[in-house]
Amino acid sequence: MKVADAIAGVLKAEAIEHLVCYPRQMLIDPCIEAGLKPVICRQERVGVGIADGISRSTDGARIGVFSMQGGPGVENSFPGAAQVFGDNVPVLIMPGGANRDRAYTPPTFSAVESFRTVTKWAASINQPQRTSELFRRAFHHLRTGKLGPVLIEVPGDVLDADIGALDYAPPRPLRSGPDSADIRNCAAVLLKAAAPVIHAGQGVLYAGASKELVRLAELLDAPVLTTNTGKSAFPENHPLSLGAAVVSAPKMVNHFLRKADCIVAVGASLTRTPWGPKIPNGKKIVHLTNDAGDINKEFPTEAAAVGDAKLVLEALIAEIGNRKRANGTVAEVKAVREEWIKDWISELTSSEVPINQYRVIHDLKQAVDPENTIITHDSGGPREQLIPFWEAVAPRGYLGWGKSTQLGHGLGLIMGAKLANPGKLCINVMGDASIGMVGMDIETAVRNRIGILTIVFNNGLMAGERESMPRAIERHNALDLGGNYADVAKALGAWSRRVVEPQAVSSTLKQAIEVTTSHEPAVVEFVVKEGVRFSRY
Ligand SMILES: Cc1ncc(C[n+]2csc(CCOP(=O)(O)OP(=O)(O)O)c2C)c(N)n1
Ligand SMILES: [Mg+2]
Q1: Side-chain half-sphere of 11: how many Cα atoms within 13 Å?
Q2: What is the pLDDT of residues 445-503, one digit of tens each?
Q3: Span 180-332 CATH architecture
Q4: Which residue has the CA at smallest separation from atom 9 of ligand 1?
Q5: Which of 51, 52, 45 is nearest to 66 (CA)?
Q6: What average pLDDT does the chain have?
Q7: Cα separation, 48 vs 57, whole angstroms
Q8: I need a labelling partner for 535 at 20 to 30 A (CA). Which of 64, 135, 372, 391 fits?
Q9: What ligand 1 atom has the least distance to the C-alpha of 531?
Q10: How does pLDDT run across 155-200, given as a tens digit for each residue?
Q11: Would you tell me the crossing angle of helices 357-367 and 505-516 to the nearest 10 degrees?
Q12: Inter-helix orientation angle 131-143/3-13, to 10°
């Protein structure tokens, strides 16, 4: 068997359905022979985004794979790799590579060396007979421990080498549980706390531990906030939910963070980031994570336990037993939420022209079945506007992203989510700068019959950058962007509408949702106001 066919056999054994790819890549045909479906994108960074959507929306149960040319192809996929590395998403990136006799000859591009800083592990198949071994390691890394992208480079001259029969068995995902002494310590700190707050991250999603998280919150009568990537780990229609935080957040988040004496982080690294909850100094920290390297990293830690979020939560729940607490938290969350909505209801229902972004979000909420919807934001204003006000009720009903925050990443992400969840309504909300980065890939959705709904907030500028370059703006209008994206989408073959009247928001969204049910992407461009009011308290 040739190495190319062996790799196709590995992917088949790993139940990979889609090969997201861009030529020239000599693995494409062998993979198609093995029964995979190709998804050819228009740009490599979007290809990584599609693979991300497959992995992220399935909590890694299905691994997204993206394969492209060595040299220019892999060079052009660096942003995608950096984004999934920042967000710890298990994605397999499989570039071609120069023949082995070109290695270490400048300027030959080395994907392994160049991607070392944005991958969990990167290797080149330097000997054909190592194919099975290297893929076993790759899939082990993609399933176990702290997750992240893995890169395997396939040099051109390796592909045709004969290696006999393929000997490959998919490695099982492995979970580890916590030390019982650590759990006793965590429970003791928690039960002494007067006002604990639970800070939940994406580890809860990957562990499938949302039910256990709800149980812990109810036992402690503790309110729950999530990180950006952890949004949807806790049902946001639960009376203890505070919502998720980026720079903006529901009013409840900072209200409870300020008064908390103890923060319990679950399935979260607690890395300080502008796009996450801001934990004030001086709180007692209890840290539950599968990566010991994150403990004591940013915060002195009072108690901690290392393990898979589900196993750790089960152990903690058992340790707390019937020592249930009551703090009157539900009534306090409700009161602050009511104050918050009072602050915002005029925005959410506004009839102003240009259209208010919050009105679109509000009308969209009414138009969807939240149990059957996956939605994601893009960078910039849309992220800040959507996250506080979108109520995620089911795990992975929201794909929050952004330790790096690359404009345009949401488009590939939602295409991958739709490929992996064809029965769900999949929506991405992007600004005009974002669509400028990746808009041509709307054609990828058209051609591959990926029925996503793309919402574009077109305010004709980069709202968040007003502060960053006042002189350039004053003298050269440097903030402004131009474009009619409904026309662009139409020219790319998508169903599209441009909406300027608030009265048409709801009916157009409903029409667009209907269009997506027949595997056709829909793009709705809303001509919106600049939009600089954010939910920040
Ligand atoms: C690839 C990339 N380059 C630059 C940035 C910095 N950045 C963040 S938001 C933004 C402007 C976003 O404008 P737009 O998408 O139109 O949304 P708006 O803020 O206007 O609502 C920029 C330049 C980024 N996040 N990603
Ligand atoms: Mg804009």
Answers
A1: 31
A2: 999 999 999 999 999 999 999 999 999 999 999 999 999 999 999 999 999 999 999 99
A3: 3-Layer(aba) Sandwich (3.40)
A4: 380
A5: 51
A6: 97
A7: 14
A8: 372
A9: 21
A10: 999 999 999 999 999 999 999 999 999 999 999 999 999 999 999 9
A11: 50
A12: 30
Nearest to 148 by CA among 78, 211, 70, 93: 93
Distance CA 324, CA 488 (A): 57
Domain ranges of the chain: 3-155, 180-332, 349-527
The CA 363 to ligand 2 mean position distance, Å, reads 20
The answer as to CATH 3.40.50.2300 being correct for domain 3-155 is no
Backbone angles phi, psi at 480, to 5 degrees: -80, 145
Residues with CB under 6 A from ligand 1: 379-382, 405-407, 431-434, 457, 459, 461-465, 531
**Cα distances (Å, whole numbers) of residue 380 to 140, 342, 427, 498, 530:** 35, 25, 17, 21, 12
- The residue whose CB lies within 8 Å of the most ligand 1 atoms, and thus the one to mutate among 386, 437, 462, 529, is 462
Residue nearest to atom 17 of ligand 1 (CA): 431
CATH of domain 349-527: 3.40.50.970
Q: Is 90 exceeded by the pLDDT of residue 324?
A: no
Do the two domains 180-332 and 349-527 of this chain adopt the same fold? yes
Residue 325 has pLDDT above 90, yes or no: no
CA distance 220 to 104: 58
Residue 468 class from Cβ within 10 Å (0-12 exposed, 13-18 middle, 19+ buried)? exposed
Residue the block writes with tokens 């209907």 = 514
3 C-alpha to ligand 1 centroid (Å)? 42
One-letter amino acid for residue 441 of the chain: D
Report CA(304)–ligand 2 centroid distance (Å): 42
Mean of the pLDDT values across residues 506-527? Answer: 98
- Nearest ligand to the C-alpha atom of residue 431: 1
Measured in angstroms, how far is the CA atom of residue 120 from the centroid of ligand 2?
34
